[in-house]
Structures are given as structure tokens and as C-alpha cells.
Design brief:
17% of the residues lie in helices and 36% in strands. It has 124 residues and is an alpha/beta fold. This is VOC domain-containing protein.
Length: 124
Amino acid sequence: MNLNQVTVPALDVAKSVAFYQQLGLRLLVDACPRYARLECPDGEATFSIHAVPELPEGPGITVYFEEEQLDEWVAELQARGIVFDELPVDQSWLWREARLRDPAGNQLVLFYGGDNRKNPPWRV
């Protein structure tokens, strides 16, 4: 089994598409205003956005995007006007993470975990 795609809700799909394109994702399917699918620049994963009449309540989902050159990527995104809730910081679980929200309020974590993502010292 392989995780192929993640879909997030949005009130304004076009606005979310523009945001994710700034992150570097490439548009594959444009069915705005109800749906769009993008692909990550590395690997085979796709990411989609679907229109909802209202956003879910509560903490919602968190989507993680990994990039080895995390600090440089974050600086580049800031230069493009992307606002972060937290800039890159080393975490106790041995990942370096930055946090932000997309236009719909979905939480994103841009991170680099390297080998520790799948093989932390405490792996079972």
C-alpha cells in the first residue's frame, strides 16, 4: 500500500490553489470552483482541494511537506509573502519544522526529518 493523495477542504478553491502553487506544487486538474488536484515536485504524491460550504470545526487536519533544504525553502516562501506561524525550529523528535496555515486555515508543517522520519532511535 502507498499513500497516494490527501484532500483538504476550502471555501475558495482558486485561492488555495494559488497558495499551494507558491509552495511549489504543480496544478494537474483544474475543476474550479469545486475541485483541484496538484502534484508534489518530488515523488508521486498528489494533493487536492475540494470546495465545502463551511469549514470543519475543531483542530482539523495537519499536512506535512518534507524538504531537505528547509530553512532556504522557508526563506524563499517568506520572500514571496507567505506568512508563518512558527519559523524552523529543531524538535525533540529529531525533526526541524516550520508551521503555517493555508487560506482555508488547514495547518501545514514544512519539515525535514531525514532518516529520523522513518527510523528514529525509538523505532519499534
